[in-house]
Amino acid sequence: MYEQMRKIRVFEHHVDELYRSRKMPGLAHLYVGQEAVAVGVCAGLESEDCVMSTHRAHAHYLAKGGDLNRMMAEIYGKATGCASGRGGSMHLVDLAVNMLGATPIVGSSLARAFGIVGVASLIRYRARIDDPKDAVVMLATLTVGLASGVELYGLALFAAAFILAVLWVIESFEPETRKTFDLKIVGPDPVALRSDVEGVLRRAGVHYELRGAGAKDLTYETQLPLGVRTDRIATSILQLHPGSDTEVTWEEKKKK
Fold first, then answer.
1. How far is CA 101 from CA 110, 143, 240, in A?
2. Is the N end or the C end of the chain the one with fewer CB atoms within 10 Å?
3. Quick one: which of 150, 168, 217, 144 has its CA closest to 41?
4. Which of 185, 187, 244 is nearest to 219 (CA)?
5. Which of 252, 177, 187 is nearest to 213 (CA)?
6. Res 233: pLDDT
7. Which domains does the chain have, with CATH numbers?
8. Is 103 left (phi over 0), alpha (psi -120 to 50) or beta?
9. 3-state class (DSSP) for residue 179
10. pTM summary value
11. Residue 51 forms beta bridges with which residues?
12. DSSP 3-state assignment of 82?
């Protein structure tokens, strides 16, 4: 699994270089940082199981067993590509590994997946196929934005009506939101507190960079997760040397 994740990461970085240097046609929506999701989920799929992906389809295709060279040829629009050069980066199709498609239209991949599953279920019902071993899994990827929409509830009702077992895999590409503060510590000997202060910041999950270390003050530029409170960190810093004449101040830096 690690090798698969590494292959996807290296491939995506290579695609990014080609796109930025204008050596490849079309757009490139990368999957960097989420490789474990695609590899982990697809590791539980059988060869006959299907995947319907979004505009970030490279990792799903490779994790499903797709051919890297055929996908690169597809990105370049060549006839040797997995979709004969007609799909490109955001419309990967390869029936050899049951990659049924990818679409850049938000939400449409999920609707198409449910449509295919619904038709397949109808065919199984009409053909009186009752053996669960003859059934396959349809993996449809979605992100937080789609999961927050009302369309998902409609598809959930569809799944309940047709008695479909659904596995929701929600992928998030949103970076962690943080606030930026200038932290200033004034005291009789703040430099002696530096290692302890930085230990407090690390334990609180704060990203920090030392900006100044004078005879009576320490100054940091810090980035705090939204759920972290500055007053609690200040209290922890003051408790390092109780009774000392130390002051801790925070000044939030607004984005320009």
1. 11, 17, 58
2. C
3. 168
4. 185
5. 187
6. 93
7. 2-171 (3.40.50.970), 178-252 (3.30.70.260)
8. beta
9. strand
10. 0.60
11. 99, 139
12. coil
Residue 171 DSSP SS3: strand
Report residue 201 as tokens.
Answer: 């910041």
d(CA 110, CA 113): 5
* Tokens representing residue 111 in the block: 């609707």
Residue 113 CB partners (closer than 8 Å, separation 6+)? 50, 52, 100, 138, 139, 140
- Of 78, 84, 82, 31, nearest to 59 by C-alpha is 31
Give the torsion sign (CA, 27, 11, 13, 99).
Answer: positive
Q: 220-246: buried (b, 16+ CB within 10 Å) or exposed (e) per residue?
A: bebbbeeeeebeebbebbbebeeeeeb
Residue 190: both structure tokens together: 């703040």
| Structure token pair of residue 197 | 């202060």
Q: What is the pLDDT along the chain (256 residues), one digit of tens a residue?
A: 899 999 999 999 998 888 888 888 888 888 888 888 889 988 888 887 888 888 888 999 999 999 999 999 998 889 999 988 888 888 888 888 888 888 777 666 666 666 666 666 655 555 565 655 555 566 776 665 555 555 566 666 666 665 555 666 777 666 667 889 999 999 888 788 889 999 999 999 999 999 988 888 999 999 998 888 999 999 999 888 877 788 999 998 876 5
Measured torsion, CA atoms of residues 211, 240, 245, 232, in degrees rounded to the nearest 10: 70
Sequence-distant (≥ 6) Cβ neighbours of residue 15 within 8 angstroms: 24, 28, 30, 58, 75, 89
pLDDT at 126: 52
Asked if residue 87 lies in contact with residue 148, where contact means CB atoms within 8 angstroms, the answer is no
Cα–chain center distance at 33:
6
